[in-house]
Write a structure and sequence with these properties.
Largest sheet: 6 strands, mixed
Strand order of the largest sheet: 4-3-5-10-6-9
Mean pLDDT: 85
Low-confidence stretches: 204-215
Order of helices and strands: HHHEEHEHEHEHEHEEHEHEH
Distance between the termini: 50 Å
Structural class: alpha/beta
CATH architecture of the largest domain: 3-Layer(aba) Sandwich
Helix content: 25-40%
Number of domains: 2
């Protein structure tokens, strides 16, 4: 078994087909196929099932690829040990929530004098966060999840050798502009909200889903009156300038000061915020540093 063979196998999984992987790796498809077959013979099981549409990872292959990615990742980390200058690499994938962004900015500030750095922040929905951490394409994933979904979510992570560490609990609010007509109906406020459109935020085209927290507790949403946006600032601007409303958790003070909203608490609905990381994977110093910064930014926002 060689590192090249491991790289080949990981790239095939990413691409979903031998032909696409061969093009990305600049090797011939027969050579790529032979390299993987040698790997499979050596270990005594199939990593991929071939079909007309490409390849599918087998059950044992999925476990093998976890270790393959880990080996390749550790090899990359070892390269940094031999460099004379200090090097820092941190890849974060997270839902778009203001304290997460603030902590990332603070992290960059703290490490701005590092001679060599490679920092990345990708905003994404829950399933993409899990997938990127699982494939070791991100060092850390941050996710917000409804409390009643947490046990099922943790079971899902175990199947991928991942775990969720909770940082706190968040309350939910309806956000409307000052002077919104719904504010005149305090007793029937949530019933009246059905008359108005809701603005929902999509963080990527990876999966076509609504806000990750959108679920049964928000039965005051009129699904015939929805506005979807991909840009957070556009969502906030719509809420600030129209009768549409938004749903969310408390913003970081550095963000909330720009929006003159009325925040209406939604009773008995809470979410957990926490980070996803690999079980038995060593946690890099960069990851530990960021988590501590995020804990500070969440102070006063979690309950």
């Amino acid at each position: 078994m060689t590192l090249q063979q491991l790289r080949y196998a990981v790239e095939i999984e990413k691409c979903g087909s031998l032909s696409k992987a061969a093009k990305k790796l600049f090797v011939s498809q027969p050579n790529l196929s032979n390299a993987v077959k040698e790997l499979e013979v050596e270990h005594g099981f199939s990593i991929f099932k071939r079909n007309n549409r490409g390849v599918q990872v087998t059950e044992k292959g999925a476990t093998f690829l976890i270790y393959a990615r880990s080996v390749l990742h550790q090899c990359e980390e070892m390269k940094h040990l031999s460099t004379e200058t200090q090097s820092s690499k941190f890849r974060l994938i997270a839902q778009n929530y203001s304290p997460i962004m603030e902590a990332f900015v603070k992290y960059v500030k703290q490490n701005s004098n590092t001679e060599k750095m490679n920092y990345e922040l990708l905003n994404a929905q829950g399933f993409e966060v899990v997938d990127k951490v699982y494939k070791q394409e991100a060092d850390l994933g941050i996710i917000i999840l409804l409390e009643d979904k947490l046990d099922h979510f943790r079971d899902h992570l175990k199947d991928r050798n991942l775990e969720f560490s909770k940082l706190g609990c968040l309350s939910f609010y309806v956000n409307v502009r000052q002077g919104h007509p719904v504010l005149e109906s305090k007793e029937n406020l949530f019933i009246e909200l059905k008359k108005y459109p809701v603005v929902l935020y999509r963080e990527s085209t990876y999966i076509q889903s609504d806000d990750s927290f959108l679920a049964d507790p928000f039965d005051f949403i009129n699904k015939d009156k929805t506005i979807y946006v991909f840009d957070r600032d556009v969502k906030f601007k719509i809420v600030s300038e129209t009768d549409a409303f938004g749903i969310g958790t408390k913003l970081h003070p550095n963000f909330s000061k720009y929006y003159d909203w009325v925040r209406i608490p939604i009773p008995d609905v809470y979410a957990s915020i926490g980070y996803i990381h690999g079980i038995n994977r060593p946690m890099k110093a960069e990851v530990r540093n960021y988590i501590e910064l995020l804990k500070i930014e969440l102070e006063g926002l979690t309950i």
